[in-house]
Write a structure and sequence with these properties.
The protein is 48% helix and 15% strand. The two termini are 35 Å apart.
């Protein structure tokens, strides 16, 4: 399909030229061409807020040309004439159209299809009205994967970041979609946090206290001898984090404007420092630190180069990078997509190094190896996991949470601790997988030669 909207500046977008480009690059009938153009514009508007107004205006023009969802064969000369007429709408005219429904076959419906949006053309301006809906859900301040990038990488990568992510029978991954759905269900039920019941009880009591009484409760709380060790570690982590939260709630407000680094250092960095102190699973370095994995893979693939991250968590078990953290600013911008690509590239590099390190281990065991990443956008953190399924690199959202910055938002700590406890569980699982890979690689566990890691690697991605 055409890349017209990605290759042309938004100020130069033109329905006639776009239609020509789409018709030239496909053998689809006119109605399908229009729908394809509208879908691409919708994705651009969702992925790049700065282009939303231009995309919505063009989609509205297409709706006016495709009245009642009946799209006849329109030659470009007639199309230009129709557009000219649309441009001559008088100030008294208001045009209202409903978004046309489209047969999407096996594809999932897009956000526009689900909401039955209404497009209003008033003079020279267009307005789009969406009834409130959460099907499919699209959240703000979350990692995004541009449609163009997804198309370029689809042979070797599959990314699942939201309910609205469109998949099909050819390029989709049913297993990854199911895994994503399970993670979202677990997050909704606080499955990980509820597994440490005493820690959950401590957290609920603490958050029910007043700000003035918080420190007295936290510092005088003692676990009894029957408290499970896992609960004790989470309670210790909660004590550290809530003490720091108390300080953030009582300190003076900044007297000068700050940037995302200030928020990252005050609200995000301490949480993972306390995660390290209470669990002992990861050791962190901070603030524009180079990924050693990218450096090493760059020896074989010079194009990768050195990449800097806001935080790097190294596994204490095997001394390799297990968690990459990137702060992307205070709001959704195209830069956030670049940061996500950096996380995807470098978590893939970490996987490649592990493939080289455990080339004689079982491919079945290695498919369970995961590298984690955190992308921070505004006040929200999102936990991602990247793995290799033997065919493609799979990246899935695991958890997300809003980090509270003031006392009135303190209940958001429930989801933050759900994320942190889930991260702890997954790090422990990876330590077990590391031990299994080590035994298999050195021959303590027999592995069939045809089932070894070096047999499943793709030469184009993982030359060994």
């Amino acid at each position: 399909m055409s890349n017209y909207f990605h290759q042309t500046k938004s100020s130069n977008w033109n329905v006639v030229n776009a239609y020509k480009s789409y018709r030239k690059s496909s053998n689809l009938p006119p109605q399908a061409v229009w729908q394809s153009m509208k879908l691409d514009l919708l994705r651009i508007a969702e992925a790049r807020p700065s282009l939303k107004e231009a995309a919505d205006t063009l989609r509205s023009d297409i709706d006016l040309l495709c009245e009642d969802s009946t799209v006849p064969v329109i030659h470009t000369s007639k199309l230009a004439e129709s557009i000219h007429k649309i441009g001559k709408v008088t100030q008294q005219n208001t045009t209202i159209t409903s978004a046309p429904s489209s047969p999407v076959g096996k594809r999932k419906h897009t956000h526009d299809d689900q909401t039955n949006s209404i497009h209003v053309k008033k003079n020279k301006k267009a307005y789009v009205f969406h009834p409130p809906t959460l099907t499919p859900s699209v959240s703000i301040n979350k990692p995004t994967f541009d449609n163009v990038d997804a198309t370029l990488l689809k042979q070797h990568y599959y990314v699942k970041l939201s309910d609205a992510h469109i998949t099909d029978g050819v390029n989709g991954c049913i297993e990854a979609d199911t895994e994503y759905d399970n993670h979202m269900d677990d997050q909704s039920a606080n499955r990980s946090l509820n597994s440490v019941k005493e820690a959950m009880t401590f957290l609920l009591i603490a958050l029910d206290r007043s700000l003035d009484n918080l420190l007295d409760f936290v510092w005088t709380y003692h676990c009894d001898g029957n408290t499970p060790m896992d609960d004790k570690k989470i309670i210790d982590m909660a004590k550290y984090i809530l003490t720091d939260f108390h300080a953030n709630c009582t300190k003076p407000m900044p007297l000068v404007a700050t940037n995302e680094r200030t928020s990252f250092c005050e609200y995000i960095l301490p949480m993972f420092k306390y995660f390290s102190a209470s669990t002992g699973l990861l050791s962190f370095i901070w603030c524009e630190k180079a990924s050693q994995s990218c450096k090493q893979v760059g020896i074989y693939h010079p194009g990768i180069g050195s990449k800097l991250f806001d935080g790097l968590g190294t596994s204490v078990k095997d001394k390799v990078e297990r968690l990459l953290i990137e702060c992307s600013g205070q709001q959704d911008t195209p830069h956030n997509q670049e940061d996500f690509l950096k996380l995807l590239e470098c978590t893939s590099a970490c996987l490649q190094l592990d493939m080289m390190k455990y080339r004689n281990a079982s491919s079945k065991t290695f498919k369970r190896r995961q590298i984690f990443s955190i992308q921070v956008i505004g006040d929200k953190i999102t936990l991602l996991a990247t793995r290799f399924d033997g065919t493609r690199v799979i990246c899935i959202e695991i958890r997300s949470a809003v980090v509270p910055a003031d006392w009135e938002d303190r209940l958001n700590w429930i989801k933050v601790f759900e994320l942190l406890v889930k991260l702890k569980e997954m790090c422990l699982e990876q330590d077990m997988i590391t031990k299994a890979l080590q035994k298999e690689h050195v021959g303590l566990v027999t592995v069939n030669k045809d089932d070894q890691v070096k047999q499943l690697s793709s030469p184009s991605l993982y030359p060994l």
